[in-house]
Design a protein that fits this description.
By secondary structure, this protein is of the alpha+beta class. The chain has one domain. It contains six helices and twelve strands. The strands form four sheets. A five-stranded antiparallel β-sheet has the order 1-5-6-7-8, sandwiched between helices. A three-stranded antiparallel β-sheet has the order 3-2-4, with no helix packed on it. Helix 1 crosses helix 2 (60-67). The longest helix is centred in the N-terminal third of the chain and has 45 residues, at 6-50.
Length: 232
């Protein structure tokens, strides 16, 4: 075969493409279980972080199993348990795309120092992409015990600061409540220096107005789904 011909070049390139595609598919398949394991581990870290648990150097899987007592799914309309398990497997992005009445609401029932805590996931939109997090509540289902927030692509030094300790500590330094007089209020995110009436609030991110507004909406919508559970 003439190695300088166009036919040879096309055949050679086609064979190489097939070989490389096969190798990539094989590697991807081989690593799939490990990738899934890492995704699950990261989710457990996020939930534990919302509970203010120090996970540095810890066996996260073991710690999670000791702290998280139950992972039920709640019925939106009644707030009652509709399934004893399944919360961990819920994809918030997929679930939030459903009509509200059809959603499965994941709940994580935890024990910290012999006290019951409830962890509720939240999901929303920032400036450049999705934002998400977990809110841990005391047994009264109103007082915030801890929070965790993350994002897909917010601006470093601005909107990305929702992940900072300084922002998250505002929710717990002075106890914040998501209900008042038995009614759901959420927690407002306001511009620094501003105040909110009849609702607990924290300062938003300077220069990250749209991301802060996204967190505000995420908390109202995400926690608001659980209003019937919170009233029980």
């Amino acid at each position: 075969m003439n190695t300088n011909s166009n036919t040879y070049t096309i055949v050679y390139a086609s064979v190489m493409v097939v070989i490389v595609a096969f190798l990539l598919a094989f590697v991807s398949s081989s690593l799939k279980d490990k990738q899934n394991e890492n995704v699950e581990l990261d989710k457990k870290k996020q939930i534990l972080s919302a509970l203010n648990v120090d996970i540095k150097g810890a066996d996260v899987a073991q710690l999670y199993s000791e702290i998280v007592m139950a992972e039920p799914l709640l019925d939106y309309q009644t707030g009652a348990v509709k399934a004893e398990t399944g919360a961990f497997d819920i994809d918030s992005k997929f679930e939030n795309a459903k009509p509200l009445a059809e959603r499965n609401l994941p709940l994580f029932v935890c024990q910290i120092d012999s006290a019951t805590k409830y962890v509720l996931p939240v999901y929303g939109a920032g400036l450049w992409g999705p934002i998400w997090g977990y809110v841990a509540l005391d047994a009264d289902k109103s007082t915030i015990f801890g929070v965790y927030f993350s994002h897909a692509g917010e601006t470093p030094g601005l909107g990305a600061e929702i992940t900072s300790a300084a922002f998250k500590q505002q929710f717990t330094e002075t106890p914040k409540h998501i209900t008042r007089n038995g009614e759901f209020t959420s927690v407002a995110i306001v511009k620094p220096g501003k105040v909110a009436e009849d609702v607990d609030y924290v300062n938003g991110i300077s220069g990250g107005t749209i991301t802060s507004q996204g967190v505000d909406a995420m908390l109202k919508d995400g926690l608001g789904q659980y209003v019937n559970f919170l009233k029980q």
